[in-house]
Amino acid sequence: MKEFNINNLVRKNILELQPYISFRDNNEFVNPVLLDANESPFGELNRYPDSTQKILKQKLSEIKNIPVDQIAVGNGSDELIDLIIKVFCEPKKDSILMMNPSFAMYGFYASINENKVIKLDLNENFEIVKDDFIAISNDIKCKIFFLCSPNNPTGNSIEDIEFYIQNFNGIVVVDEAYIEFSGKKSCTELLEKYPNLIVLQTFSKAWGMAGARVGIAYSSQEIIKLINTVKAPYNVNFLSLNKTIEIINKQEVVKSNIENTLNEIAWLKNEFQSVKCIKKVYPTDANFFLIEFENVEKVHGKLLENEILTSKRSPQISNCIRINVGNREENTQLIQILKQFETL
User: Fold this and answer.
1) ∠ CA 222-6-200 to the nearest 5 degrees?
2) Which of 7, 85, 116, 162 is least surrounded, with the fewest CB atoms within 10 Å of its CB?
3) What is the pLDDT of residue 29?
4) In this protein, which residues make up the domain named Aminotransferase class I/classII large (predicted)?
């Protein structure tokens, strides 16, 4: 990576943009009379939430050992993906790079922002071919590389992530939505080493808080300041903030749930071996499996008839379905249906 200067990557109008600052949230008061925000004085949720998410950030800082000013909170990771693109990518001019296949929302938000989406095809084992990465990076000069690890929908972790951070002359976003299931080290450990790195994590998966819509970005102070400049003032609501803080205080429960999921992954792996309509179960570091079937349309259709909802990835990934790991009752129902149609 060449000498890094954040100002060379940020859109000029964003550098000049003045952030919205809530006077209330950026000052300390003992017993204030709140007549500043045109709120109703009545009701349980009549006050705006903390626009700076101070308590949540402090909790995260303590458990992650990352300074508060290197943490941004989003309305799910989706909002943070959108904001990162808005900070760095000039509409109709800049492009992003993403793996193919990978999480579709990187390309979705880039397209909304009128940025070109360049796709880096993975090999048959869903790994990045380094020579292809170098060739595309040197040829197209993308502003952002979205790297999902463990990858969705393939389930595998990307090896040698530092290579891609070192050899990309732009912003590298490592999306770690499923990191808690993988046993791998988080790239947050690399933040001090690489000023072009952003790490995304979420409360939607291992923490069991998908309905709260809370995502986290970890990066340099400069990049986090830019994200906070372009975010909506009250982007995470009061209820979601409080529920997220509650679950952080119940980490033993979360650890137990993760362990139960890992046990179910092992149980399913064993059960899949006796399902004849399965051609291949791909290795996974996430809480889902990518599975190749003999007759994917019939399998998917029969599962749907029995109200078992899965994610058909064919034709993008030929003959494959992505199947989330449920609890034992749900997983047993899945196996029972699959075994009924072994001759498909």
Assistant:
1) 60
2) 7
3) 92
4) 37-337
Cα angle vertex 36, ends 236, 48, to 5°?
15
For residue 344, the model assigns a pLDDT of 45
Nearest CA among 287, 224, 194, 256 for reference residue 61:
224
Contacts of 177 (CB under 8 A, 6+ apart): 77, 103, 148, 150, 152, 200, 201, 202, 204, 205
Question: Nearest CA to 255 among 189, 291, 198, 207?
Answer: 207
Q: How far apart are the first and last CA of the chain?
A: 51
What is the per-residue pLDDT for 3? 72
**Contact by Cβ (8 Å): 166, 119:** no
Residue pair 320/256 in contact by the 8 Å Cβ criterion: no
Count of other CB atoms within 10 angstroms of residue 130: 12
What is the predicted pLDDT for the residue at 2? 60
Is the Cβ–Cβ distance between 69 and 224 less than 8 Å?
A: yes
Strand 215-218 vs strand 197-202: parallel, antiparallel, or unpaired? antiparallel
The ranges of the chain with pLDDT < 50 are 344
pTM above 0.85, yes or no: yes
Q: Which two tokens stand for residue 130?
A: 């380094």
Decide if 199 contacts 191 (C-beta within 8 A): yes
State the DSSP string of 146-211. EEESS-TTT-PPPS-HHHHHHT-SSEEEEE-TTGGGT-PPPGGGGTTT-TTEEEEEESSSTTS-GG
Neighbouring C-alpha atoms within 13 Å toward the C-beta of 89: 30
The identity of residue 83, as a single letter, is L
Domains, the chain, in order of start with CATH, read 10-249 (3.40.640.10), 252-340 (3.90.1150.10)
